[in-house]
Write a structure and sequence with these properties.
With about 200 residues, this protein is of the alpha/beta class. It has a domain at about 60-195. Helices cover about 40% and strands about 10% of the residues. It is built from five helices and five strands. Strands 3-2-1-4-5 form a five-stranded mixed sheet, covered by helices on one side. The longest helix has 27 residues, at about 130-155. It is elongated and about 105 Å long.
């Protein structure tokens, strides 16, 4: 009876090289997604030397209950009306010091954009999706006003200007040109969005 031949040997000497090359290929070509998160300015570590007195009319209060209902300035409000209400508050210009504002100059509302503060408070049982949606609407009010002024002054969209300025791949010459423009628009409508302590009721 003839003797069976064994299975041919596979030369595995180069397998490690191939695996290593594949690993390098995937590391180089894969893009890693990073979460942008919420853009918020943390309070300074050192408390201010003098007590800051804020008039109640310069605070726009937004409360979210556990059912997702909005109580804005002590009145129930539909989410679709929130952005317009916040915009009207931010550019109310009661003291007349803002020459670019188009507000009603209501004496009972905010004095000017630099003094206007939006205070957001939510219930502990508020859905996260509702909380984020409300945040987006409030930030959207700031962005709408900033975009309007960027169009007027520079004929550009502010959100695109800011994104290009913050992009590390933007050439330094372009970033230097955008720096003063972005800061000027931000100073015109500073984003003062305060988050009050969460309610347990």
């Amino acid at each position: 009876m003839p003797r069976r031949k064994g299975a041919p040997e596979v030369n595995a000497g180069s397998m490690a090289d191939i695996a290593f090359l594949l690993l390098i290929f995937f590391l180089v070509t894969t893009t890693i997604e990073t979460d942008a998160g919420l853009d918020r300015m943390l309070p300074p570590i050192e408390p201010p030397e003098e007590d800051v007195i804020i008039k109640q009319k310069n605070i726009f209060t937004v409360n979210i209950n556990k059912n997702g209902q909005l109580l804005v300035e002590d009145e129930l409000m539909n989410l679709k009306n929130l952005r317009n209400a916040a915009t009207a508050f931010l550019e109310n210009n009661a003291d007349g010091s803002c020459n670019y504002c188009k507000g009603r100059k209501d004496a009972a509302s905010s004095d000017n954009p630099t003094k206007a503060i939006i205070s957001l408070k939510n219930d502990r049982e508020t859905k996260y999706s509702t909380y984020i949606t409300v945040q987006n609407e409030l930030v959207g009010a700031y962005n709408d006003l900033r975009n309007r002024e960027a169009q007027r002054l520079y004929n550009q969209d502010f959100t695109k200007m800011e994104a290009e300025y913050l992009n590390p791949e933007t050439p330094s010459a372009v970033r230097d040109d955008l720096k003063d423009k972005v800061k000027r628009i931000q100073d015109m409508f500073p984003q003062k969005l305060s988050e009050a302590e969460t309610s347990t009721n």
